[in-house]
Amino acid sequence: MSVTFFSVLNLFLFCIGIFGIVFNYNNLLSILMSMELMLLSINLQLILVSLAIDDLAGQVFALLILTIAAAEAAIGLAIVVIFYRLRGSVLVDNINLMQG
Question: What does the alpha-carbon distance between residue 85 and residue 5 come to, in Å, rounded to a whole number?
Fold first, then answer.
């Protein structure tokens, strides 16, 4: 398989993530999942370019992005769970009610 095929696949995944954020902006869980899809698409592209130019720096950078994305997902899901316990829904419309 060529580099072009995987680049188009990454572009397709990134666009799905953008559309998920734009069209499902009311649901906090779908926004988090779309952000994770976008980050994974970027990581796949970094690894692909790193393999194509035979350089290890892109793979190391992708590994760093994966650790940051895992921390972001853990914190984001913790906030969603707390928000659901307090409000009973995960709609973004009610997020301005959180104070403190």
Answer: 44
